[in-house]
Every structure is written in C-alpha cells, then in structure tokens.
Specification:
This protein has 222 residues and is of the alpha+beta class. It has helices at 35-65, 157-169, and strands at 71-84, 89-102, 107-120, 123-130, 133-135, 139-143, 146-152, 171-186, 189-190, 197-205, 216-217, 219-221. It is built from two helices and twelve strands.
Length: 222
C-alpha cells in the first residue's frame, strides 16, 4: 500500500502560476483641432472666398468698362499784370484756359463743385468757383478761370529775390489748383462723391513780353 503523503500545511508546490495581467486603461490623446481652431479655419476660408469673388468682380468690371483717367491740360494763359508793390500787395490779372478730356466710353463725370485757386510761392492769392456740369462719354470740356485783383502776400527774402528774377525774365512760376467734388456715372449707377485735387504747375509769361506759353499737363492728387 502506497504510503500516504503527509499534509503540506496548505502550501502548493506545483508549477508557478503566472501573474494576472495588469488592467491598464489606454489614454488616447484626441487628434485634430479644437472648436476654436475649426472656427478659425472656417473664417479663413470665407475670407479667401470673398477676396476671390471681389477680385473677379473687379476684373469683370474693368474688362467691361475699361476706365481711363480724365485728363486736364492748361492750353493757354493770359497774364496782363503781375506786380508786387512796396506794401507786399500782389496785383494780378490772369486768365487760364483748361481743357478737360474724358476718354471713357462708359463712364460719365458729375462735377458738383469746382474751386480754382491760384498760388505764388505756395501762397494763395485768389479763388474762383466755377459752374458745375456733367461731362459725358468721350467728351472734351473747357474751364476758364479768371483771377483779377490784389492780395497781400508775405514773401521772405528768398521768395522776394525769386520774384525779382522772374520779373526780369517776364516769366512767372504760378500754380493753379482745382479742388473738385465729383461723382462717376456708369450706366444708371452713380458713385459716391470724391474730393480730388488737380495741380497745374505753370510757367506763365507776361502778355506784354509776347512770349509763347507751352501746353502743360496737370496732375491728379487723390
């Protein structure tokens, strides 16, 4: 009879039992952007789309209308008097002929206000308000401001020396500037008002000297 094994006090001496697998919860980091980032991307797409639409609209408008700059030229002047007396009072008699050419086929111009100003050595000595008018397509209009009178001017030593030199040469550096209030018309649509300035830098001969005046192009200044 086999010998009965002795009690082992509850101990187990069989093969080793593997440990229970640890229960780790995987924490995934959320990929992609948050709500704020998505909104930013959406806003950026909307802005890019609007820029493209506006750019296409401007391109189509330009291709259809083909806008060109209205051109101002001083074609003739008449200076009968330009004299500075001992009291720094400038006596003047100046007439200016200005042509305004609108070369556009589809754009008209409303000249709601035209203010012509005459300057010598950056000092304004006269202002004339000219009649308002509408200028149609491919049209040439004429402005004829006349400056006549006297005005106190304050010339320093350098400006006075320049005046004396010009009096000896009988050719004066006079600036005529047009301060405009205009609207453009395309078809039946009128734009809002713009307030540009047109500057004409002139070399004006005294009429008594029988010198020739050269046609002078004026410059826009928006």
């Amino acid at each position: 009879m086999a010998e009965k094994q002795a009690h082992l006090n509850g101990a187990y001496y069989g093969p080793s039992v593997p440990p229970a697998p640890a229960n780790y919860r995987s924490h995934r980091r959320s990929s992609g952007c948050g709500c704020g980032c998505c909104l930013l991307k959406l806003l950026l797409k909307i802005i890019i789309t609007l820029v493209i639409i506006i750019g296409l609209a401007v391109l189509i408008f330009w291709l259809i209308v083909r806008p060109n700059e209205v051109k101002f030229h001083v074609t003739d002047v008449s200076l009968n008097e330009f004299n500075l007396d001992g009291n720094n009072t400038l006596h003047y008699d100046l007439a200016v002929n200005i042509t305004v050419r609108n070369p556009n086929r589809r754009i008209g111009v409303h000249y709601d206000r035209i203010e012509a100003r005459a300057y010598y050595e950056d000092q304004r000595f006269d202002t004339q308000t000219l009649p308002s008018f509408y200028q149609g397509h491919k049209n040439t209009s004429f402005l004829n401001p006349v400056f006549k009178g006297k005005h106190l001017v304050f010339l320093g030593a350098d400006e006075t020396a320049d005046f004396n030199e010009e009096r000896a040469s009988t050719i004066y550096s006079i600036d005529v500037k047009l301060y405009l209030r205009i609207r453009f018309k395309v078809g039946s649509v009128r734009t809002g008002r713009f307030r540009p300035k047109v500057s004409c830098d002139l070399k004006v001969p005294l009429s008594a000297a029988n010198a020739t005046f050269s046609t002078t192009k004026c410059d826009w200044d928006f």
